[in-house]
Amino acid sequence: MILEVKNLKKVYGDKTVVNIENIQIEQGETVGLVGNNGAGKTTFFRMLLDLIRPTEGEIISKNENVSQGDNWKSYTASFLDEGFLIDYLTPEEYFTFIGSLNNLSIADVSAYLTQYGEFFNNEILNSGKYIRDFSKGNQVKVGIAAALMQKPEILILDEPFANLDPTTQIRLKNLLKAQTGSMTTFISSHDLNHVTDVCNRIILVEKGKVIKDFKTDENTLKELESYFSA
Ligand SMILES: Nc1ncnc2c1ncn2[C@@H]1O[C@H](COP(=O)(O)OP(=O)(O)OP(=O)(O)O)[C@@H](O)[C@H]1O
């Protein structure tokens, strides 16, 4: 087991927005987190990354409580939103910076980026533009590529498909599928099709609680569609 969530609660005012008794994640699992707006997905991810503190309970990453240590930071990469980027850098400068934090040389970073030609659709590199001047979808591509560049053991992506064009969504699915088994991945998504395609386990949350937690099979998409059509 690489991650465990124990009696996790986040309360704002009189509202409990996350209330998860237990989730255990095995190494190599690709877990999709689905649930309607306000279900608590982003709040959960923010606690997983120690960006906010739980009201109660804990998240254990390889035997370490993420809010009490920082070993987990060396093998965890994430992209939740544009706040993870540095607006006044070009993508190349940003990749070099993230690379330097992970002991990658400029040459390593350039070599890594050559695989991303298709994903970037020739719009990211050598443009001379700052990240702040890119479209939202292209900013997301920068953030996801920077997270993958770290070759993390744990990858966390919040709604990665949301701002991407259909072609790039499919390319992203292929990138994620290529890593299946070697990386433990947590992806939240409103795209039931993509999330069941990429993930081998789905956790369905409603009002902060886990309603279903199951392995994906050929019936999963139908089950999810019927749940959400109610
Ligand atoms: N800082 C905060 N103060 C008060 N309430 C908050 C705060 N952050 C989140 N919430 C509330 O917590 C609930 C869960 O929000 P969250 O963003 O985690 O949901 P989500 O599942 O990611 O939704 P979406 O699919 O819309 O992105 C919402 O009701 C939200 O209003």
Automatic annotation (TrEMBL):
Domain ABC transporter, by residue range, is 3-229
Q: Which InterPro entries does the annotation name?
A: AAA+_ATPase, ABC_transporter-like_ATP-bd, ABC_transporter-like_CS, ABC_Transporter_VariousFunc, P-loop_NTPase
Q: List the molecular function annotations (GO) for this entry.
A: ATP binding; ATP hydrolysis activity
Mitochondrion as a keyword of this entry, yes or no, is: no
Query: Which Pfam families does the protein's record reference?
Result: ABC_tran
Q: Does the keyword Nucleotide-binding apply?
A: yes
Report keywords, A-Z: ATP-binding, Nucleotide-binding, Transport
Which superkingdom, per the lineage? Bacteria
PANTHER family in the record = ABC TRANSPORTER ATP-BINDING PROTEIN ALBC-RELATED
- This one is known as ATP-binding cassette domain-containing protein
Q: What is the lineage of its organism?
A: Bacteria, Pseudomonadati, Bacteroidota, Sphingobacteriia, Sphingobacteriales
